[in-house]
Amino acid sequence: MKRASSSGPHPAGSAAAGGEREAFKRELVALIPHLRAFARTLTGDAASADDLAQDAMMKAWDARASYQMGTNMKAWTFMILRNQFYSEKRRSWRQTQLDPEVAERTLVATDDPESPVALDELRLGLAMLPAEQREALILVGAGGFAYEEAAEICGCAVGTVKSRVSRARRALQTLLETGAYERDGRPASEAMSSILADAQRLGSAR
Amino acid sequence: MIEQRAVDRANRTTPPELNEARLRQQAIGVKLRQMFDEVVNEPVPPDFLDILRRADESAEDAAEAE
To answer: CATH number for the A95-206 domain, one of 1.10.10.10, 1.10.287.40, 1.20.1290.10, 3.30.300.30?
Structure first.
């Protein structure tokens, strides 16, 4: 709805609040893609991930008065999203680990011919990790958070995050190398070599 | 015998399996970021912005009503 700006005198406080609201909104909008990605890794399916991301976005919006501009809004919104996910989960049937079959149907679907076997297998392997290991690895390994920030988001000690990340890395590597999951026909060791090949192709081996 | 090979290798100066393990972990890290970024780079469904815009408008109304 459009409205002409009122000609009456504006209290200075409310004008400042409007500007702050605008700045908050801009920052929040910029974070939506990241919230969607984090939600996707928590829920394992795109539709409920977007529901979760929307809920978290609105929770953050409603709580904007308690957010201090200039602090880490990404970590703050990720914490809100994560809390939302676990409080919903407590009342529902969802298991800690994603159902591999569901994960395969939903996470694996991609039309990108450039990201074949390796990425699918990684998603599947990721889905088989305990939720706390998966989220720690995602936050640190993909989300770009420091261990300290990840610890704050997860509400646990820094050492706990470190050990979860390292256990997740080991477990994922084992899953990718030995294929400790049901997979029709293809030897799972292919997954690891294809991941290695892709990484080299991307030239990102630091 | 695999254990024996590992021990033999570990006795040499540079254990290649350490480098190999590091390489594998790096490769997994690259893939992990790629997977995450795939979603980050998706266009945001319009309802996200619609919901936020509506909330923003009612906040504006509330502010002006003061």
So the answer is: 1.10.10.10
CA distance B6 to A148: 35
* A204 contacts B32? CB cut-off 8 A: no
Q: What is the CATH number of domain A14-93?
A: 1.10.1740.10
d(CA A194, CA B31): 11
CB–CB contact B59 A21 (8 Å):
yes
Cα A95 to chain centroid, rounded? 18
The tens-digit pLDDT sequence of chain A (206 residues) is: 444 444 444 444 566 778 888 999 999 999 999 999 999 988 878 899 999 999 999 999 999 999 988 899 999 999 999 999 988 766 554 444 555 555 554 444 444 444 445 667 788 888 888 889 999 999 999 999 999 999 999 999 999 999 999 999 999 988 888 764 444 555 555 677 777 777 777 665 44
Burial class from Cβ neighbours inside 10 Å (0-12, 13-18, 19+) for residue B37 reads: middle
Domain ranges of chain B: 2-65
Cβ contact, residue pair A118, B28, below 8 Å: no
ipTM: 0.74
Closest-CA residue of chain A to B53: A25
So where are chain A's domains?
A: 14-93, 95-206
- The pTM assigned to this predicted structure is 0.75
**Which chain B residues are closer than 8 Å to A112 by Cβ?**
38
